Amino acid sequence: MHIVDRRLNPNSKSLENRQRFLRRAKEQVQEAVRNASSGRDLGKALDGGEVSIPSDGVREPRLRTTPGNVRDQILPGNQTFNEGDILPRPSGGAGRGGAGEGDSEDDFRFMLTREEFLEMFLDDLELPDMAKRRLASTEREGLRRAGYQTVGSPTSLSITRTMQLALVRRTALRRPSPRTLAELEAELADCEDEDRRTALKAEIEAMRNRMRRIPYIDPIDVRYRRFEVEPRPVARAVMFCLMDVSGSMTEHMKDLAKRFYLLLYVFLGRRYKQVEVVFVRHTDKAEEVDEETFFRSPASGGTLVSSALAAMSRIVAERYSPAEWNIYAAQASDGDNAHGDGVMTAQLLTEEVLPVCQYFAYLEVGATSHLRQPMPDSPLWTLYERLQSEGAPLSMRRVEDRSEIFPVFRDLFKKRDAKRVSP
């Protein structure tokens, strides 16, 4: 079979060569994507764009025949050297030049599409401890061997089974073997007795007739491998997005939280087909909302963090059995909480939420400070830090600026060896 791929390449470029290049320079391209995304607005970052990698990363090894590293060659247009002259080695060594070292090589720049950018950015991220697997309502189908059948495609022909059945049939029907026929023909060639020759000829003719009636391989012997489609267990997971939208959250803080959750939503949608997302926002009371309301609808009020944890606990009890679901939670807040709610928050978190969670991430957002001073410890940060020191499986990070969203997100969801990791 000879296949010619005549699909159109994007922008008149070689798709196969482009994919080969991305695979070869994967680590450098991923590093360039991370560097590019850290300084971009979220919306622009998801659209892809131009990235650059060092030109050394695109060089390919070559074999050259230069015994002793000596070349006897004069290029056309040369007005300085003659044949036999020795060229001095350039100062500073080979490779890319730095500042004050003469000319330097430009970085290799190229464009990434939105799909390529997201694939490179999300490639080494994962939900930790995705261990519970069950048969979901929309199951992943796979093929399994299910014996043999008498019809099928040539690619599924089972030669071994076919030959076994042919041998059994020939043995049961007493089909003469070619060796027996050859022995009789050899005896006939050496025999001089006419009566014996006549008997041998009759026996050989009868044997040949029997061999023609009983073929070596009959269509009834042919067997094909049979496959059946069977459901396979898939890892089902639910991600709870808990966001504080109270009056203490400024528009800048809400913008940081929404950008974090938007990135999380894109990550889950691309990497996990069986992940459900539950959006819970809260002021002094919590409510489960849809995606549109969560990201765009304004809200304001007091702050009771325990209301969001209680809502999550109730939803888990109603719809997501911890025995069948991998449960994850990501909470974003400015750290403010009503006085006296800390005890209830700690109780709900340690007794109801964390025991059923595979992973709990807390993101504290703060106002941008021109002095770049460290954020003071908030009531909620102090509480969670104490619980973490007591062994609670919490991951906690802080962000103050849009440029910190990407590094923090990668830090929270990068691949880990341990099942539960806290900083």
Write the layout of secondary structure elements.
Elements: H1 15-24, H2 26-38, H3 42-45, E1 49-53, E2 108-112, H4 114-122, E3 133-134, E4 140-149, H5 159-172, H6 178-190, H7 194-213, E5 224-232, E6 234-235, E7 237-244, H8 251-271, E8 275-282, E9 286-289, H9 291-296, H10 305-319, E10 326-333, H11 342-353, E11 359-365, H12 379-389, E12 394-399, H13 405-413
Parallel strand pairs: 7-8, 7-10, 10-11, 11-12
Antiparallel strand pairs: 1-2, 3-6, 4-5, 8-9
Helix pairs in contact: 6-7, 10-11
Structural class by helix and strand composition = alpha/beta
CA radius of gyration: 37 Å
What portion of residues is helical? Answer: 25-40%
Task: Outline the biggest β-sheet.
Answer: 6 strands, mixed
Strand content: 15-25%
Which descriptor suits the 3D outline?
flat
**What is the tally of helical segments?**
13
Which stretches are poorly predicted, pLDDT < 50 over at least 5 residues?
93-104, 130-138, 417-423
How many distinct beta strands?
12
Mean pLDDT: 75
Q: Please write the string of helix (H) and strand (E) elements.
A: HHHEEHEEHHHEEEHEEHHEHEHEH
Task: Give the oligomeric state.
Answer: single chain
Sheet with the most strands: spatial strand order: 9-8-7-10-11-12
Alpha carbon gap, first and last residue: 55 Å
